[in-house]
Sequence to fold (328 residues):
Amino acid sequence: MVIADHPITAKAHTNIALVKYWGKLNDQLIIPQNDSLSITLDKFYTQTAVQFLPELAADDVIFDGQVLSDDASLRVRTFLNHVRELAGFDYHARVITKNFVPTSAGLASSASGFAALAGAASRAAGLALNQRDLSRLARRGSGSATRSIFGGFVAWQQGHDDATSFAYPIDERPAWDIAVVVLVLTVKQKKVSSRVGMRLAVETSPFYSAWVTASQADFKTVKTAIQNQDFEALGHTSEQNAMRMHALTLSSDPNFTYFNADSIKAMQLVKDLRLQGIVCYFTMDAGPNVKIICQGADAKQIAQHFQAVFGKDQVLITRPGAGISISD
Fold:
């Protein structure tokens, strides 16, 4: 094992969950309550460079050109401690990250962020991890990051411990023409973090056990739909799964929601388009921004429809993205 004598750079893309992860069995190891399934997106990504340096007295974390305080960089430093433990040394690191996705707005910035950090930090530390082990490592920073190691359609196996909870590819380069129209309705940081929201749902929602059972069934349905290229089954099940997840926020104590007025408006517009014969479905993660799953041939028309309502700059077309890339 040789520590790199220069910065190592990794690039990882965000993903959106078609079958959601919402709640942990083990908070420390980030073991989920159920299997989940996502699609990696080509439009949004994080690029991170890491170098471990013996002369540093502390980790130096620079995010989008700003040096982060100790409080702001706590999750990064905790993750780096795990990498140092695996590598068997105590050097601190300089981390330089550029985010090409709004942070904490429900667009999975932590997924791309910790996937990129896992790739760059592990290689900089001299660890030669295969993709499964890299997925396991990324999970320790953010659960959804475990899926951003791979491209295309990706599953996260729940597992029962650190060794058995990891992501694996279902279809890394989808041959069918799938697109996602992203509505960036706000870039404001959400008031309730995913971690807090999950904990509230697990501990207080009376419907949580039913959610887990339904999600396991949804996982099987969506996985089969991908294998059969059955767009309507994939879209319908993904939309239902998203709404069931958000029902947990409304039934938690205290109750809360990630929706805003534009979220509700956008969801209704998607349903209106379906009535007009344009087959598309919506999904939402922990934030107000809406993602519309559609077939590639319809993406431009759908995007134009929503640009007329929300503005041109708020609507983006994205397609299945690649897995992590690491450059020495």
In short: The domain at 178-318 is CATH 3.30.70.890 (Alpha-Beta Plaits). Residues 76 and 86 are 16 Å apart (CA to CA). The chain has a mean pLDDT of 95.
